[in-house]
Amino acid sequence: MGKESGSVQIFHKNLCCLMLGKLKNIGKEKNLSSLMANVSVAFLGLVSFMLLTRQLSKELFGEWVLFITLATFVDLLRFGLTRTSSVRLLSGADKENVKVVLGTSFRINLVLLVVLTLACWMLYGLVVAGGFEINNGYLLFLMYYPFLALSNLSWNNAMSLFQAEQNFKRMMFVRLSNVGLFCVFLVINYALLGLGLVEIIWVNIVVNAISGLWCSLKNWDGLLFISQAKRNVQKELINFGKYSMGTLISSSLLKSSDTFIIGMSPILGSAGIAMYAIPLKLTDLLGIPLHSFAMTAYPRMSKKSIQGDIMGTKKIFYSYVGIVTLLFFPVAFAGFVFAEPMVLFLGGNEYKDALPLLTLIFRVFTFYIMLLPIDRFTGVLLDSINKPKLNLYKVLVMTSANIVLNVLAVFVFESLVAVAVGTVLFTVMGIFMGFYYLKREIQIRGRDIFSESVLFLRNLKIHLG
């Protein structure tokens, strides 16, 4: 009896060790690490969003959304010039080359910061002196963005290093240091302080500066390596980056142009921006896994491409498209079914009167969610095989179509639902263009997505362990 009891205990002990080992391996898997990093940041972003909807009026919240959307868009312009190309050069680079690439990219982004600061403040002066009537969100951006741009320079530049190293844990902690602090402030502000929009913007600037200072002290950002910047590396970063920057800007415009154009409408205005932001935020949250998988897919496909292994590059593409699309179907279905309580939970009672409209908009967005994986990964693959120009052409066509559709939706139909429908239409267009380019360049075949996805699932233990 004692022997049997001892055997059972040993069996349980070995089983626990085996399970812990498997969990440890799963935790180290790059896709899951990236996903955890993005989910953690997005959760605090969601909490911040909900707190802001509850402590700002519709008009003020709309101005905040316009300000932060413009800031995010211009950040993509700044860092889009160097990030994708930096990740490509940093992947597998030795310590000395890492310093050269980081120092060169930091110098480029510093020059861009000076140019953008002068442009913003000159435009602000012209608008004020000329007495032009524009949405206050635009004025807030022109006045305060240069301070925000300076405060987030270091940690944004460090993101290239983290992505190239696949160090998503470090990436998560750096992002949490500003998003988390901002969320803590909003809780205190909601409960005790009651500060206004301008004060909230200043706190956002300060918490970004804290993250930037951390990256500078750790030598992750390239600030101390500026003296090691090289002209030939700068040329390489810019030559590749001018296409990836155009792609990132155009990609950002695919969503942010909705906000910009709604903000120009005398009928919809800031209140329209605030209402549209709620279903759009839900869509962004459901799309978090895609961003995580894209971050891990790009270095992997780039490495295979640089090694000349086109077949290996295509296999990674097929697997990612198939598996992520499969994951997105139940997510989109659940979003469609539970759209009303999700919208109400995010927006609060302030938006209860607009609940039927916002629910309909989000249900339209669920179709967009299902199309996102295949559209995103065609773009990632074009960049990976060193065809950023083709990816830029694809996104430029999509952006142009979206802007035209947005103008018609806002100024002709005066409908937020029509704006959402336009999002679905331009995504379908992007999928067709992406496959056209990939078939021409590396003979991508749509039917191989299914077979490679099945093979991936059969070998799932190998991928996780």
UniProtKB/TrEMBL annotation:
Chain ranges passing through the membrane: 32-52, 64-81, 110-132, 138-155, 176-194, 317-339, 354-374, 395-413, 419-438
Main localization, broad class: membrane
A Pfam family it matches: Polysacc_synt_3
UniProt-listed InterPro entries: Poly_Biosynth_Transport
Domain of life of the native organism: Bacteria
Entry keyword set: Cell membrane, Membrane, Transmembrane, Transmembrane helix
Membrane-related topology note: Multi-pass membrane protein
GO CC field: plasma membrane
Localization: Cell membrane
UniProt-recorded name of the protein: Uncharacterized protein
